[in-house]
Amino acid sequence: MALPSAFAARQHQPQQHQQQMVSVAVKTLNMRTGPGPRYETHWTVSKGYPFKVIGRKGDWLRVSDFEGDKAWVFRSMTNKTPHHVVKAQVANLRRAPNPRSPVMKKAGYGDVLRTLERRGDWIKVRHEGGTTGWVQKRLTWGW
User: Whole-prediction pTM value?
Assistant: First the structure.
């Protein structure tokens, strides 16, 4: 049986274009078990933390983080400012996008980095502590 052409075309779109990403826009955001303030708070995250949107219900977004944890967040407390989170134990922030460039700072697992520029396999970021540098994309998750 042949697939409808619209369905077949959708199956061949690059995955990254189908994924909507958001970041936390407020100082602290409650990660809830369901789409509403009456639901229990699982955990909290800080400003800039990136998420992949995996669902919606009214003004609530179902999101997933770099560890695959899922929760609900209020949409107006997120924005489209690109961020990454460190998924490696340590990620060196370097002066230039080169593995031999001097290390400006060492970022640790879970550190939030503001995305400033992309160049090949490297991302220019600003650490939450203020240091700016280049990090290898494979050591981070986000956009």
Answer: 0.84
| Tally of residues, the chain | 143
Contacting residues for 68 by C-beta, under 8 A, at least 6 apart: none
Distance CA(141)–CA(66), nearest Å, equals: 6
Whole-angstrom CA distances from 68 to 92, 116, 133, 143 are 24, 25, 27, 16
List average pLDDT for each run of 10 residues in the chain, which is 143 residues long.
46 53 98 97 96 98 97 98 98 98 97 97 95 98 97
Burial class (CB in 10 A: 0-12, 13-18, 19+), 128: middle
d(CA 135, CA 115): 10
End-to-end CA distance of the chain: give it in Å, rounded: 38
